[in-house]
Structures are given as structure tokens and as C-alpha cells.
């Protein structure tokens, strides 16, 4: 059966990477397998493969994010693509050009891929709906909606440590409501067959739809963390404090911050993840962030490999085609 | 007879591309022919030729322009050159270094080409007068004076649609007075032998020297557009409104904006061009901009090919030398 | 005997380039010899060698400096490395990430080298102390402390003109107190065996430790410049005027500015150097800066070659390994 929907081309091949919605376990597993090959590139003397040589990748960052932009830029360069960095707020937006006109122009310049970061939910989807057939769109984070490459690198990290997804307990802790990472993460874990997904948050930081997400809700980290295999800590946006959604940082840390004492309630081989950048002493204690069970920096390395795998896949080049290149 | 002047080297070869003034039909035709070869590069799987490998091209943008900078950057990268982007307002100008000292330094770093954008008429010419013999200068727009690469990509676009220049009627519509595009366009059309060039503008947006430009002046678009083969719409700078040169945007659109009704007065196969970015509903109606006779996005694609051709030419590398590279 | 200290790896090979402190004449000479080979690259048709292909070099500029950043970027690109430019003030610092967390992340992305510019003395040293074993750090200027690549390119320039260091008189003129260039310069000259190093400055611009630097102090340029072979003029930071350390620019120029009259007191074949950007009419007269004895622009060209040599050396690739690459 051919796969359908915005993300697939007419032959049912993955063309965009906007959301995990509608992707099946096979597709995700294929990306994770491909990323294993790309993970070796970062360790080489010459960190470069010619897969996307002569391709043009435009980073369209409507919301600044040095870290995410940097990983996509490096991933593209290690695939030998040419990269354009467009910081849109300082760009032709100032001349009053519409978003669609800007896209039309980049298409006319024969760009092959747009990596889109935007503070509005649905922005990458909107762009994918409107681009020319030769363009692939990758969602690098849109509003509260989705951050699918982050979720995939987290899955890659979990698989490297735990092997199999189908017997895991995973807890996601923090500001679920405003987190695109959490939404994509829950989808990825579900697709890959994780039987027990827990979310741990104060009531004010839970989305109204939490009940329908197929997750177990906890308001106490001490209860929610018990016996889990994987803990995903979310970054606390400081502006939430001002919105009266939260008491002080200190009180948040006391109730929901991950310390060694709380971590001891999880399984002895539990791993601790965080999408970064971390707020030390707010959502996570330095002893845990830098401790033996933290895999936070592995996530960063894995991010390169997973993004290379996704970029190569949507442009129709698996790592196996490298020999031929 | 050897060609002389600032733009030519001692052997009479084109070394800079500052203005169309002093160039002959043969030179322009040669660039257009060369651009035909480069136009195929954008359609390849691997959009890259090694012609300028190991050359260093510095984009010196004293006036921000993401779109123009992007096309030059992509053109240079597809020619395999190394590119430096220098946004001069945020650069060593802040340390009070003089322009000439900055140029001397870039020369000493063995740059090969400066692509110059400046809001002062004559800036690229001034720089070309003062650079070392190994540097080529390309004018990417200077004040109200000239934008010769834009004019060349427009000529390329016209030739692709109309074949021959010597039987055409071309109308340029809008703010002629403040438009470097219009000035270069009129020169290019004249050199290539277009017998009838019309400019259509309110009296306040006509330059005093309009009479001497060899063009036919119209103050009514309905009259001026009649039976033309090519219509070049100019972008209306919004700040002209404040300068009391113009009434409201609505009134401008009513009188000079290109609509389907007005377009119907031109020849049935007339094409509509615009250097972008377009102001929808100010100088052009969306139905026309997105309609079947608009070639606005082709202009963008052609811009890459034409700029590659010009960069390769002034650095002494035609597309024919690619085999040898 | 194995060399030890922060800058060396376990085998005693140079791994970082933070300061000239602790380096011996052999190491400096080796770098200068290697730079001779790289100096030919800038003159080639194809200014590119594959030595660092597939390496990732991050420019971490905590203090803006277009000129220095540009030379490091070009040096890296001519060595075929991939370059990341991170302007830290506009970067994730805004998300409140700590410096060390940022470094950890760049390490995890498999960067190979950090080029660090910082307005705090000791910043590059601090970073080198804390980076992972696979990273090399190059100091591109830290506060008033050191600017060792500038000193090395000056040594290269002196050697090209004077051949031997062991019979030279060198004068450094200007704001010694606030100059990282002066500090590194004095070290380099000492290591290479220059017998007579003079510093010429008003009392307010001399560091308290001047006496212990092994230099001869002069408060009169007319006396200090007499019979020297090399004159290094320092840039006068305009903000020193406001700090009441100096009278007016005019008075400074009258007393310490280098004019042709004062230059006539030096040896007839004396060369004039300046790290740039120059303040014409403040510390140096245009007639001297642009005159036959000025080697200021040669310094810029040499900067590329010397930085390529240093980058290649700390990453373990001499120019001799190019054949094998």
C-alpha cells in the first residue's frame, strides 16, 4: 500500500520531514538504522561524505537558534551540500516581501531543501504545502507543535542504550504544555512501541489534551519516576514564571528538578536525557547533568548523525549510495 | 581595436562589471550566450562546476540586500569559489578604518573579486578605480546609478522569450527617477538594438535627463503599454510616499499599477517582468504577478546563470574551459 | 626531553596555540619555515590545499573583529576545512547557556578546533583547560594578554626582510600597557634571540611590569627609534583619550606619531609594521603608512600563511603531508 499525505511524494517515498504523525515503525527504524552509518562519519579523520554534493540547502530560521542551526549546518556540510543561512527577521521581510514570495524566489534559485524553524505552530507544514515539487522541507521546530528531528535523535540515543523499545518505561518531565519536543517525543515513543509513557508536570504545565495522548500523568516526580528506564527532562522557559504559571525557580527545582536523590528512584540503569540548553539548578541538578547516567552530550553527537540520515533520506540518497557517488 | 576604459584590462578584456556604459553588443551577446550554458547547471543533480575553485570572492554589502547577496553567494558557490560575506555596516567600519584601507587588506588576503552593493551612486566605480590589478569588481547595485547584472538577467529573460531584440517594443513602468534598474535596463536595451523603449511614470518620478535617454515618455500607462512586447514593472519604494512625490498607494495603483485590464492593451504575447521584491497591489496586481504572462520567477533563476557567466568571464574563465579544469 | 604544559599533548606535540610563553626557538622557527610553504598558496591560481578537508573549525568570537575573523576563516577554507562562525554575543548566550555547556556541545558535534577571541585576558587559556582531548584551541586575542598568531606573522615578516633575528634592534611604539600585540611581540622577539627590544610610550601607557620584560624603555620616540631595524607601531584605542590617560590626538601624534622626519632617525633600511587597522594621523602619518618602508600590507598576506601553518601544525598536518592527502 502506497503511503499518502503531505509528507510523501507520488511514489509514496518520504519527501518532507514535518511531523511524526502518519509515519510508521518501519520508516522510523529505517532512519535509525541509516543514522548508525552516519554516526561513524563524525569519528573519521575526514568527516565528509559526498552524498549531497551540489545540493543547496537553505536554513530558514524565523526564530533564532544557534544550536539547532549549527547542527543542521554541520550536517549539511558533512554531506557536502552548499548551505545558505537566512535569518529571516533581518532579511527581506524588512522589505515587506511576503513569505510565499520569498519561498518562490528560493525555489527559483534551485534550492533543494528548506530547514524551517518558526515560532508559529504549523509553519513548516504551511511551507511544505506551498513549495515546488523539487523541494523538501524539514521541520526544525515550529511553535509548540513539533520538533521531529529532536525526537528522532532521542530515539536513536535510547536505542543505543536500551536496544529494544517494546519493554521500556519512559518519563518526560517538565513543561509539557509548551513543549514541541514533548509532543514529538510522545509520538515517536508510541510509534516505536514503548508500552508505558509517563508525563510528569504541575497541572499548569500540562496541555488540556494530555488525557488523549495515551500517556500516564503524574504530578509528583517522586511517583512518576519510579522504575523508569529513561528520563527526558524538558527545558523550563523562564518566561513561564512571569506568566504566573509557576511559583519561583527555587520552588520548581524543589518539586520537579532532577536530583540524584530523585534519580535513585528510577531503575539503576536509567538514562537521563535533555534536549538542551540546560538550566542548571532549575530543571536539573549539575550532579545529574554531568553524572554517569546523563547521555545529554551523546544526544548532541547523535543529532548530527540523525539529521544527516534524514536529510539524505528525503533527498533520496541513502548512505548505501555513497559508493556510487 | 582594443577596448579601453576602467572596465577593461590592458589586453582589452573585460575585467570589471560596473556599468553597461561603454560595452558593445558583442560583449553583451557573449555573456548571454555563456549564461545559456550556465543555465543548465541549476537543473543538474550536482549543481556545481569547478571553474572558480580556489578563488576567493568577497561580498561587500554596504547596503543590506538578502536577495541579491544570496544570488551572488549561490552563483559563487556553484562555481566552487570560496565566499566571504562582509556586512560592512557591522564590520571594521566601526573601528574607524577607511574604505581604502579595508580594500587594501582584502587585496592582501588574495581576494580575487569584490561584489559591491552600496547606496551611493558611483561606489563600485570608485572601488574599481582603486583596487589592485588582480581584483575584479562587480557592481551589485550602487545608489540610483546602475545595477548591470540585473539588466543582463532581464536581457537574458527577454531573449529566451522573444529571440531577437531588434523588433521589440519595451515599456518600463514606475519610479524611473530613483531606479538603478531602469537606468541599466535602458542602456542594455539600447545596446542590444531594441528600437522602441518607453518609460511610463508620473512626472514626479521621471529623471530630468529622461529626454536625453533616447526613450519615449508616457504619463499614462494605458497609452504607453499599447502593443508592447515586454513590460518591466519597477518596485515602488514606499518612502517615496512620505516625500510627497506621490499621492496614496491606492491612487498609485489605480493609475500605474499593472492589472489584467491594462495588460490586455499590450501585445497578446507580451511578457511581464519585475526585479523583485514585488509590492502586490501597489505596482502590480497579484493576478498579473502570478499569471501566465509573468516571467518574474524565471528572472530569478536566470539571475543565477547570468551572474555565474559574468563572474566566470571577468575572472577569465568561460564555461568552455570547464573540461580542462 | 618531552615538552610539557597546557599547550602540549602527552607526546609533547604542540596541540594548542594560546601563548608564546613556554615555546622555544625551535618551535617558532618550525612554524615560520612551514609558513613559507603556505605563503605560496596565496599566489596560486587555485588557492586551496586539502590538508584539513573534513575537519570542522569553529570561530568563537566573543568580541567582534571582522578582520581577524576573516583571516582565520580564509585560512581555514584554503586548508579545505569546514568553518562555523559563532558570534557569541548574539548566540545561545541569550538563552543563558553557560560557556562550558556551549563548549561541551561543540565538542559533541565533533569540532576539531576552536579559534577564540575574547575581551577577557586568559579566556583562551581557560577554554583550552576545559576542552576535550580531540580539540585544539587557538588564541585569536584575549584581553590585554596575548595575540600570539599576530606576533608570529610579525616574526615571519621580519625574517623575510631581515633574515636573521640575532643582530636586530626592534622598537615597539605606542600603547604598550593595553596591548596584547605588544606582549606577544616582546615574547616572540626574545625567544628568537633579538638582542635589543625597545618600547616607546608615554608613562601612562606603560605597564607596571615593563621593567621586568627585558626591554629598554624610552619616553621619547626621537631617542628610542634611533638606529633601529624594525619599528612596530601600535594602534591607539581612542577610548584611552576619554580615560584621561592621554591628552588630545593631535598632541599624541606630535609626540609619538611616526612621521617621515622621525623615521629618518632609524636605520636606512628599517621597516615599519602595524597590526592594523591603522589610525592615520594618530599613531602614524599616511606618508609613512603608504611609504616604501611600510610592510603593513605584507603583514596581512603573511597572516594568512602563518595562520594556515599554525592551524595545520596543531592538527598534526605539516605541509609536507599534502602529497599524501
How is this fold's topology laid out?
The structure is a homotrimer of 325-residue chains.
Chain A: H1 25-39, E1 56-61, H2 66-78, E2 82-87, H3 99-108, E3 113-118, H4 123-130, E4 136-142, H5 148-162, E5 169-173, H6 180-191, E6 196-200, E7 216-218, H7 221-224, E8 230-233, H8 239-242, H9 249-256, H10 260-263, E9 271-273, H11 286-289, H12 296-314
Parallel strand pairs in A: 1-2, 1-3, 3-4, 5-6, 5-8, 6-7, 8-9
- The oligomeric status of these chains comes to homotrimer
Give the mean pLDDT of chain A.
91
Relevant CATH superfamily of the largest domain in chain A: Aspartate/ornithine carbamoyltransferase
Write the CATH architecture name of the largest domain in chain A. Answer: 3-Layer(aba) Sandwich
The total strand number of chain A stands at: 9
Order of helices and strands of chain A: HEHEHEHEHEHEEHEHHHEHH
Q: What is the CATH C-level name of the largest domain in chain A? A: Alpha Beta
The order of strands across the largest sheet of chain A is 7-6-5-8-9
**What is the 3D shape of chain A?**
globular
Helix fraction of chain A by DSSP (H/I, runs of at least 4) = 25-40%
Largest sheet of chain A: 5 strands, parallel
Alpha carbon gap, first and last residue of chain A: 31 Å
Q: Proportion of β residues of chain A?
A: 5-15%
Q: Tell me the Rg of chain A in angstroms.
A: 20 Å
Tell me the number of helical segments of chain A per DSSP (H or I, 4 or more residues long).
12
Report the largest inter-chain contact.
Answer: A-C, 29 and 24 residues
CATH topology title of the largest domain in chain A:
Rossmann fold
Class from helix and strand fractions of chain A: alpha/beta
How many domains make up the 3D coordinates of chain A?
2
Amino acid at each position: 500500500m502506497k503511503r499518502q499525505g503531505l509528507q510523501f511524494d507520488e511514489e509514496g517515498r518520504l519527501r518532507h520531514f514535518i511531523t511524526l504523525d502518519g509515519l510508521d515503525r518501519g520508516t522510523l527504524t529505517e532512519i535509525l538504522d541509516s543514522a548508525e552509518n552516519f554516526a561513524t562519519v563524525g569519528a573519521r579523520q575526514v568527516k565528509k561524505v559526498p552524498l549531497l554534493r551540489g545540493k543547496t540547502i537553505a536554513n530558514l530560521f524565523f526564530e533564532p537558534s544557534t544550536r539547532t542551526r549549527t547542527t543542521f549546518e554541520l550536517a549539511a556540510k558533512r554531506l557536502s551540500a552548499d548551505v545558505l543561512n537566512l535569518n529571516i527577521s533581518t532579511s527581506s521581510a524588512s522589505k515587506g516581501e511576503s513569505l510565499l514570495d520569498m519561498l518562490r524566489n528560493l525555489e527559483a534559485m534551485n534550492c533543494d531543501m528548506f530547514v524551517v524553524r518558526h515560532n508559529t505552530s504549523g509553519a513548516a507544514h504551511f511551507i511544505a504545502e506551498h513549495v515546488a515539487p523539487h523541494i523538501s522541507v524539514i521541520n526544525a521546530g515550529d511553535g509548540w507543535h513539533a520538533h521531529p528531528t529532536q525526537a528522532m535523535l532521542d530515539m536513536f540515543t535510547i536505542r543505543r542504550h536500551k536496544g529494544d523499545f517494546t519493554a521500556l518505561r519512559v518519563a518526560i518531565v517538565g513543561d509539557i504544555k509548551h513543549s514541541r519536543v514533548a509532543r514529538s517525543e510522545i509520538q515517536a515513543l508510541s510509534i516505536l512501541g514503548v508500552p508505558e509513557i509517563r508525563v510528569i508536570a504541575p497541572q499548569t504545565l500540562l496541555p488540556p489534551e494530555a488525557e488523549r495522548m495515551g500517556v500516564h500523568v503524574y504530578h509528583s516526580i517522586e511517583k512518576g519516576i519510579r522504575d523508569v528506564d529513561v528520563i527526558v527532562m524538558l527545558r523550563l522557559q523562564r518566561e513561564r514564571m512571569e506568566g504566573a504559571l509557576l511559583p519561583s525557580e527555587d520552588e520548581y527545582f524543589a518539586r520537579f528538578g532532577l536530583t540524584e536523590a530523585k534519580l535513585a528512584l528510577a531503575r539503576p540503569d536509567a538514562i537521563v536525557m535533555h534536549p538542551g540548553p540546560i538550566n542548571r539548578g532549575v530543571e536539573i541538578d549539575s550532579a545529574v547533568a554531568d553524572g554517569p547516567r546523563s547521555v545529554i552530550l551523546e544526544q548532541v553527537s547523535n543529532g548530527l548523525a540523525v539529521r544527516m540520515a534524514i536529510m539524505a533520506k528525503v533527498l533520496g540518497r541513502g548512505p548505501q549510495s555513497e559508493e556510487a557517488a
